[in-house]
Amino acid sequence: MDKNFQEEEFTEIIKFTPPLHKQRHQFVKDLVEKHKPKKVADLGCADCSLLRMLKFCSCIEVLAGLDICASVMKEKMHTLSPLPVDYLQPSERSLTVTLHHGSVAHKDPCMLGFDLVTCIELIEHLEESELKKFPEVVFGFMAPSIVVISTPNSEFNPLLSRVMLYRHPDHKFEWNQAQFQSWALETARCYDYSVEFTGVGHPPTGMEKVGFCTQIGVFVRKYAQTGASLQSEKPTEAVYKTVFKTVYPSLKDEKYLQNAVISEVIFTAQIIKHRFMSKREEYGDDPERKSKSQTSMDCFSEYLRKPVVEKNMEPFVSGNEVYIPLATIFSFPKVNRLCGTFEKLCKLISGKVTLSSDGSAVMFNIEHENEEN
Ligand code: SAH
Description:
By secondary structure, the chain is of the alpha/beta class. The protein has two domains: 20-247, Rossmann fold; 254-281 and 305-365, no CATH class. The chain has 13 helices and 13 strands. It has helices at residues 20-35, 49-54, 70-75, 84-88, 128-142, 177-191, 227-232, 254-283, 287-303, 326-330, 333-339, 342-349, 367-372, and strands at 5-8, 13-16, 39-43, 62-67, 96-101, 116-120, 146-152, 193-200, 214-221, 241-247, 316-318, 321-325, 361-365. Helix 2 links the parallel strand 3 (39-43) and strand 4. The longest helix is centred in the last third of the chain and has 30 residues, at 254-283. The radius of gyration is 29 Å and the shape is elongated. S-adenosyl-L-homocysteine is lined by residues 21, 24, 44-46, 49-50, 66-69, 72, 103-105, 120-122, 125-126, 130. Keywords: Magnesium, Metal-binding, Methyltransferase, RNA-binding, RNA-mediated gene silencing, S-adenosyl-L-methionine, Transferase. It comes from Grantiella picta.
């Protein structure tokens, strides 16, 4: 038996594992992982379940959904909002998620500039007049580098239980493989795309001719499109209504980057200070013992994957203060990666972290620590 479905009474009930709708979404996710599009639009996004899955793909920076039914989109759109953890640990990439109310039969400039457009189980819901306009809107106007279209394969229907005419009462048609392929090939030819056919939901062994339960066409644009031609050459009035928009906290945003850098600098300085103070306590000022202490400090730093070697990078005590040089803190991989340059580190923490008078070291008062000890 095929691995992705179980059957009970061959022509009665075929249960796909995982369920077919999940296989369709997984197909899109795999395609995203492979091609790494930055901007993805899901047409006929319904309850936004595909968008919810795609927001975890780290290559995506812009996600948009479109549906003619605002209420179905609104039902679960709040689940696309950032979670508290997204604010606590902002991601390195930026992510904006927008939902629009409108029809794929109409052009709107907000749909320009996408790399991947997905139309999962959408076309069979379109009226004849809408289906006629659909290729010009998606392939002519939006013209992304990749379009994925999935639709039921009517040849599979006799293998499904309870399918009378169509799989869903709102379906306006269901095509067999030849019908879908001829429509897709003609569309691809008209708009200079190539198309490959595949699907999800394997037919039972011995019935391969029936084809996949869901047939899928993956269209790839043959010509290169320049960024400049996107907006300027396609003046169109906005007709869609934006019903939801959320911008995820990102380290690309200076405000979140600054918070992250300040926390990381204080955290790193505390670690260095703690280690330095305990070694100092252990070995006092004995030069021989101190050199052992330094070796140990190096090992500790090595553990954090960046040895502290330079003399002027060593922490030091003066009066009631301990000083942790910024150069040492900057040598730690996470601080280094967050800031990029030493100058940026100085700029981001300026006025936010207590520094030595020359600004070269983070300063901690250890008066009370001494008292405690
Ligand atoms: N893509 C979804 C389910 C699609 S069901 C998934 O993968 O689970 C089809 C959706 O297309 C419905 O939500 C319906 O409201 C929407 N739809 C139908 N006609 C449309 C049109 N002309 N423009 C945009 N969306 C449309």
